[in-house]
Amino acid sequence: MFGREKKTSSPDSSSGKEPPFSNNYYNPDIARAAAAAADNDDDLHHHFSPSRERRLLAKIDLRVIPVLSILYLLAFLDRTNIANASIFGLQSELRLQNTQYNTALTIFFVPYIVFEIPSNVLLKKLKPHLWLSVCMFGFGLVTICQGLVQNYSGLLATRFFLGLTETGMFPGSFYLIGMWYKRSEAQKRYSFFFGSTSLAGAFGGLLASAIGKMDGLQGYLGWRWIFILEGLLTCVVAFIFFFVIPDFPENAKWLTEEERQYVQVRLRKEQGRSAAERPIGFKDVVNVFKDYKIFVGGFMYFGLIVPAYSYAFFAPGIIQTYGYSRIQTQLYSVPPWAASFTFAMVIAYFSDKIKHRFAFTIMPICLAIAGFGILIVVHDNHHLQYGALFMVAMGVYSAMPVIVCWFNMNLGGHHRRAVGTAWQIGFGNIGGIIATYSFLPQDRADFYKPGYSICIAFICLSAASCLVYAASCIMQNRQREKAPRSLLTEFEKTELGDLNPEYRYLL
Description:
Elements: H1 28-36, H2 38-47, H3 50-87, H4 90-93, H5 100-107, H6 109-114, H7 116-126, H8 128-146, H9 152-166, H10 169-178, H11 186-211, H12 222-241, H13 257-271, H14 282-288, H15 292-320, H16 326-332, H17 334-354, H18 359-377, H19 382-409, H20 414-428, H21 430-436, H22 449-482, H23 490-496
Helix pairs in contact: 1-23, 2-13, 3-8, 3-10, 3-11, 3-12, 3-15, 5-9, 5-21, 7-8, 7-20, 8-9, 8-12, 10-20, 11-16, 11-17, 11-19, 15-16, 15-19, 15-20, 15-21, 15-22, 17-19, 18-19, 18-22, 19-20
């Protein structure tokens, strides 16, 4: 299954037997027609000069990446602004005790994890512009409601529905980006998109410092205004984005017919056919999980989610222990986020330039480990501790987009990519539950050493998983190089995706 595929007979409609890959929706004749259309693909590919291709890529970049980046910026902002709200009195007004705040953070991840794969299936069925804009309006509305809650139960309810409405944002956007770009040019786009989390952290700190000055307006404390105004912004943008969120290349009305065909041709030449013609069935989901690399990809992301959410949820509280006021804390939380965005783009540039991923996951991971190491042993030098937060944010938030891009772009075809991406994000976000209990109030007296130690352990798990995944890609590529030429039909190659013996994984 993982390298050399067992030879299968070609589907034969005249035999009276069901073809080995058949289903109720997909006619193998579509795939057979692909072979006859190969010459047309070559003609179209040669018709586009390098300069014309660059102009088309620029057109796609301006439509796809900024829109999805703003979408996820607002999603991450609405998800993590509870950390800023906590500084402005959320816990005291709602009388949260012991680990109730941590539990409120945790409840978000229950629906967020469970509904990742169903959300990507619906994304393909309903089209991205509809599904993503509806979800966006939903989590904006829930964020507004979060600013109106009066007790702990209300906070739990809103956090649950926030997780439910946000579940499709990240895997759906990554899946959509992956269907527009070749593997060798995707990392810069993925990192810019993922960098919206860093920009959300920076923007959230600045916004919270300004909104916090509304404390007491209309009888509402500052934390309520943070939720209400940021949620209202999301709802307004969701209405606009219904008309501008891009669909898949084959449905993009903002491209000419020739441009749509060329986008699909260039991806077919690198990755093979995607089977976009048929919906995803339950059997497709099951087949994806027969590949052990799918589970390895989940652990790669899972290991970094723990330190990522630990930083997002608890960095303002940690910075406040350095002796800053509430407004100063919000402002000092901005620079590490900004630095992480810049560093992530540098990593992405060189990763795309040399067409390599593995080394660019390990280098940032080492930087993050060094940062946490400083935080564990240094407790009397606030400048050094603050500098270590830069190292943590830069390391974690630079490695994550490389890991997700590497895994996602190595998955061939709509079905494997839709399911595999959702699985990696969904399983990985289990780490968010661990993160919410990594930094407990009672650990402050011990300088949060347990939380820092937990983060280091999970970062090491991610590094080990990356090593296993890289070794698997190398091994399977070598096996396929040595294998005899495949006699599979175009239909069978399409259904196999990256399990097709002619497919080569990017290291």
